[in-house]
């Protein structure tokens, strides 16, 4: 059904092109020039037919050219540095599960074509084919010639209309001519508007060497960067405007408008910065999107039967999102709920997290199930609560300071500790504490 529908679309498109192209010449221009072949008529129609020919030729090429398929058993070069980087950064090279084959850079699987397509741009129902590496050039030329031919056509028909209204001679079109003028406007106007808008998008994409799919990927990456999930990354295939065009339309600028075969295998593309290992891993993935896909993630059973799944705390004892948000806003202001200023040097306040430390309570499993936890020198203390698991027990700043000092003192020889002498050992300084007036009084008594 899909194949028949696709062919119907192609027939419809061809019908539309030929109708606009030839009905205007046969039923509008030919009668206007008095059904006679003249030099003026030829100078008007030859350029138009040349444009029309290019539209049809490029259309034929887009429909019949294979956009490029991935060779069976193709795989990335794992030995090369790039291959290694691909694996390291994207957690495995790109792979198509449907085709059961690796995907070269910029290739995507097309559901309609039921296969992977090299440098896939989009699946176009109007050409019943995917637009990819080998026919993207024809597609761009087709759009260009449709724009040119439609503009020429509209100018030509409009001139005919103008001649009828402003001519010195009465040059009223016949009934048939009038119908075809109206029909040509009704078909050509919307086609130029639609294809024109589409062309602007694709010419812009050509200048940036971006496919339609990569345009969406760029938007997605921009969102991830904005949310702080990944580092900013430049689109790797933008290698300069001139080179971007050459990559699609060929190195010879005189032949850009002439249908030429696209060079390259479609399996590898030059990147702007070959030294950047991230270039080979486009598009960057959201690291938080598929945590289970992380091969380094190992599921471990909790040591204690009292803890909840994967060593986490009793969910009822964990702070709710509301409290977390409130505490984080307090943290931002640098104060705790008691009004204390959070210290960013040790000893740390229980609310203080060193930058980059995204660990949650649930990520720190309890050391053991016995009460030795209380002896831990960590500021956050876990206290057993029977069958309920563990709860976080807050300790005050004073206790924390005590604990910190003790932990620092445990290391012998690290600090020279000042130990004050006992009062009895320093007899000479004994009267230091006695007020001067009292001492003078005693001297007077001695003298007397
Ligand atoms: Zn595939
Ligand atoms: Zn397709």
UniProtKB/TrEMBL annotation:
Subcellular location: Endoplasmic reticulum membrane; Membrane
Annotated segments matching region Disordered: 269-296, 309-389, 412-448
Active site positions, chain numbering: 124 (s-palmitoyl cysteine intermediate)
Catalytic activity: L-cysteinyl-[protein] + hexadecanoyl-CoA = S-hexadecanoyl-L-cysteinyl-[protein] + CoA
Keywords: Acyltransferase, Endoplasmic reticulum, Lipoprotein, Membrane, Palmitate, Transferase, Transmembrane, Transmembrane helix
InterPro entries found in the cross-reference section: Palmitoyltrfase_DHHC, PFA4, PFA4/ZDH16/20/ERF2-like
Compositional bias annotation for Polar residues: 309-323, 365-375
Ranges of residues in domain Palmitoyltransferase DHHC: 92-218
Domain notes: The DHHC domain is required for palmitoyltransferase activity.
Family per record: Belongs to the DHHC palmitoyltransferase family. PFA4 subfamily.
Protein name: Palmitoyltransferase PFA4
Record organism: Phlebiopsis gigantea (strain 11061_1 CR5-6)
Encoding gene (name): PFA4
């Amino acid at each position: 059904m899909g194949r028949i529908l696709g062919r119907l679309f192609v027939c419809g498109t061809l019908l539309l092109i030929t109708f606009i192209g030839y009905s205007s010449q046969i039923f509008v221009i030919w009668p206007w020039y008095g059904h006679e072949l003249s030099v003026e008529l030829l100078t008007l129609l030859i350029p138009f037919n040349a444009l029309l020919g290019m539209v049809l030729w490029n259309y034929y090429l887009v429909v019949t050219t294979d956009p490029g398929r991935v060779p069976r058993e193709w795989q990335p070069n794992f030995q090369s540095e790039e291959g290694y980087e691909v694996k390291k950064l994207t957690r495995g090279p790109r792979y198509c599960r449907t085709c059961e084959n690796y995907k070269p850079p910029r290739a995507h699987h097309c559901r309609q074509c039921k296969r992977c397509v090299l440098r896939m741009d989009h699946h176009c129902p109007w050409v019943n084919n995917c637009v990819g590496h080998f026919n993207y050039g024809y597609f761009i030329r087709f759009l260009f010639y449709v724009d040119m031919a439609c503009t020429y056509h509209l100018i030509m028909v409009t001139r005919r209309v103008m001649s009828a209204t402003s001519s010195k001679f009465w040059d009223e079109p016949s009934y048939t001519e009038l119908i075809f003028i109206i029909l040509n406007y009704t078909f050509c106007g919307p086609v130029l508007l639609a294809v024109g808008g589409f062309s602007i998008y694709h010419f812009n994409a050509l200048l940036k060497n971006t496919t339609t799919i990569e345009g969406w990927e760029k938007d997605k990456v921009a969102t991830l960067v904005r949310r702080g999930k990944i580092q900013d990354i430049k689109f790797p295939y933008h290698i300069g405007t001139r080179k971007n065009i050459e990559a699609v339309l060929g190195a010879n600028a005189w032949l850009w408008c002439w249908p030429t075969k696209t060079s390259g295998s479609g399996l590898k593309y030059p990147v702007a910065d070959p030294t950047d290992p991230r270039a080979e891993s486009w598009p960057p993935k959201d690291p938080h999107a598929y945590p289970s896909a992380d091969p380094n993630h190992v599921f471990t059973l909790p040591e204690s039967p009292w803890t909840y799944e994967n060593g986490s705390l009793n969910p009822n004892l964990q702070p709710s999102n509301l409290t977390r948000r409130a505490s984080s806003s307090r943290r931002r202001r640098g104060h705790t709920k008691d009004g204390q200023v959070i210290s960013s040097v040790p000893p740390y306040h229980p609310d203080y997290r060193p930058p980059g430390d995204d660990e949650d309570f649930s990520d720190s499993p309890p050391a053991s199930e016995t009460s030795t936890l209380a002896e831990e020198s960590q500021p956050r203390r876990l206290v057993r609560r029977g069958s309920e698991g563990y709860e976080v027990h807050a300790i005050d700043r004073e206790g924390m300071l005590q604990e910190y000092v003790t932990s620092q003192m445990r290391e012998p020889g690290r600090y020279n500790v000042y130990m004050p002498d006992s009062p009895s050992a320093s007899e000479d300084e004994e009267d230091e504490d006695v007020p001067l007036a009292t001492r003078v009084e005693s001297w007077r008594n001695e003298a007397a």
